[in-house]
Design a protein that fits this description.
Oligomer: single chain
Largest sheet: 7 strands, parallel
Protein name: 3-hydroxyacyl-CoA dehydrogenase
Organism: Devosia nitrariae
Family: Belongs to the short-chain dehydrogenases/reductases (SDR) family.
Helix content: 40-55%
Number of helices: 9
Distance between the termini: 40 Å
Keywords: Oxidoreductase
Length: 253
């Protein structure tokens, strides 16, 4: 799909992987809607790239429905959706204070997995009604899993389960939406220099990076964005989860 002139929505677009992706899409002349809970960061980025910002809780059906409506008013129906919104929590199934809070587990799954599916169902409902573009394409969905989906570490039960669910969604949804000309893809990033890791001391980041075969450093958000762009532009790539991790395989802890 040629990106110029397309309408793209990026969840979690106010910072990190989402912000880099929103910028990359805007640089290629897409009409970008930045979706995030952080209004300050989201509005600042949207102004900077010439897009629009909509505050959105991806796990809330009403909030997401309203976000699509506002984006449609400003930019038209969506043709690209990039799901970057997500949260994490570190908790053992059984810790010093007893079993992990079920509410904490549920919250991570609700935001990461259910939130991703919520945005997919709403975006594709609109995409499926559009006139097909060249080659019969009507849209592209790119979601964000994690290498934790495959090698979740101790304390990552909720996060790994949510990201594993995103990876597992990819092929069946791609198969279902093929008849509409909508491609569905997922990226499983490894250890990236996002705002969360950026706050760590340099020596801690160096220790984390030393476990990565090559290049032995944290990934940069622009590298994630570059893969999103390649996925959108390559019409023969569909139903796949691609690791972006420098060859790292997470150890138990």
């Amino acid at each position: 799909m040629r990106i110029a002139g397309q309408t793209a929505l990026v969840t979690g677009g106010g910072s990190g992987l989402g912000a880099a992706t929103a910028r990359a899409l805007a640089e290629r002349d897409a009409r970008v809607t930045v979706l995030d809970l952080n209004s300050e960061k989201g509005e600042l980025l949207a102004r900077d790239i010439g897009g629009i910002f909509v505050r959105c809780d991806v796990s809330d059906p009403q909030s997401a429905t309203e976000a699509f409506a506002r984006s449609r008013e400003g930019h038209g129906a969506p043709t690209i959706l990039v799901n970057c919104a997500g949260i994490g929590t570190a908790a053992r199934v059984v810790g010093r204070d007893g079993p992990m809070s079920l509410e904490a587990f549920e919250r991570v799954v609700r935001v990461n997995l259910i939130g991703t599916f919520n945005m997919i169902r709403l975006a594709t409902a609109e995409m499926s009604l559009a006139e097909p573009q060249s080659g019969g394409s009507r849209g592209v969905i790119v979601s964000t899993a994690s290498v934790a989906a495959f090698e979740g570490q101790i304390g990552q039960a909720a996060y790994a389960a949510s990201k594993g669910g995103i990876a597992a969604l990819t092929l069946p949804v791609a198969r279902e939406l093929a008849r509409f000309g909508i491609r569905v893809l997922t990226i499983a990033p490894g250890l990236f220099n996002t705002p969360l890791l950026a706050e760590l001391p340099e020596e801690t980041k160096a220790a984390i990076a030393s476990a990565i075969p090559f290049p032995a450093r944290l990934g940069e958000p622009d590298e994630f964005a570059a893969l999103v762009i390649a996925m959108i532009e390559n019409d023969y790539l569909n139903g796949e989860t691609v690791r972006l991790d420098g060859g790292v395989r997470l150890q138990p802890k």
